[in-house]
Amino acid sequence: MNFYKTLSKFSLNSNSKVVLFGKDYEPKTNEEKKWDHLYEKISTIIWVSYRSNFPPILETIYTNDQGWGCAIRTGQMMFSQALLFTLLGRDFSPQKCNNQEELKIYKKILSYFLDYPSSCYSIHNICSYASENFNYKIGKWFGPTSIVQTLKYLYEQKHSDQLRIYVSVEPDIYLDKISKSEKFVPIFFCISTRLGMNSLNTIYAEQLKELFTFPQFMGFVGGKPMSSYYFVGCTGNQLLYLDPHYTQTVVQTSNEGDFNFESYIPKGISQININRIDPSMTLGFLCKSEQEYENFLERANIFIEKYQGKQIFSIHKNSPNFDFDDFIEF
Q: Are the CB atoms for 12 and 235 separated by under 8 Å?
């Protein structure tokens, strides 16, 4: 089944260009199929939404996360996408894949996020860690920084050999804090920032759109007050995002652990004017190879020089000579 054909059509100017994960998409001349290539690409993104009827979280009565779990879901989306790109590449499509080994890896990635206590990055384990370490009360809203900190910790306990994750609560990257290894290990940067007081400061709008042209950019977790979205692209002043605010029944698994992955295929894409988003967000950048890492640093330095003094984030060779308790990295 071609799931991308079920994607809801969104209104785009016929001359508009869409940028998605660092790649440009131009409208086709055929009006009927103008954006089919874009819809097909969107359908390969892992979509994580609210779920119902999962086992209770810890000792609570919560068996669904409707109304409070959206930031958890968007964090799961960005992190699962980073794992997908790392292990299977940016061109992988579960709908078109005939390689059983690759499909097995894809389903293995999804299995980490299933809504069961046994799944590494399940809502159960996320809430458990956050309640123990952040005084988080289950059923309350997560912030974008808290979710990436939590996922970082859970990842460190299970799969730290596949990916290095650099998490910072400040919009700064300190290169000397990146762990060294003889063989290059992919790096996933999660950079939290606030670009304004109560709303996005307009001086950052063009910068934020420009980040989508970076091949390493994984989008960002952000949204509106008390509503979190996963932003993956832009067109003009419109940001494209996946919306977790749809409740689906928990995925059932067989005795062998197999399951149907159709509910993780996006059924639509939403858009919002960039000036309407909340200023608090966590940016993601993935460098799979040493070449991608060097290219990221080169692009970032040009970007920082261009917006000198008002740039969204900064890169420093060395970290400050004082204890930076809020900096988390491994």
A: yes
Question: Does residue 13 sit within a domain?
Answer: no
Other CB atoms within 10 Å distance of the CB of residue 222: 26
Number of domain units in the chain: 1
- For the residues of 229-270, what is the DSSP string, one character each? EEEEEEETTEEEEE----EEEPPP--TTS----GGGS----E
pTM over 0.85: yes
| DSSP symbol at 68 | T
Contact 258, 122 (CB under 8 A): no
**Within-domain flag for 295:** yes
What is the widest separation between alpha-carbon atoms in the chain? 59
> Which residue shows structure tokens 């089919």?
36
Give the chain's end-to-end CA distance (angstroms, integer): 41
Instruction: Supply φ then ψ for residue 84, to 5 degrees.
Output: -60, -50
The pLDDT tens digits of the residues spanning 265-298 come to 998 889 999 999 999 999 999 999 999 999 999 9
Domain assignment of residue 322, given as a range: 33-251+259-329
In a domain, 8, yes or no: no
Q: Which sequence positions are flagged as catalytic?
A: 70, 243, 245
Tell me the pLDDT tens digit for each residue of 180-224. 777 899 999 999 999 999 899 999 999 999 999 999 999 999 998
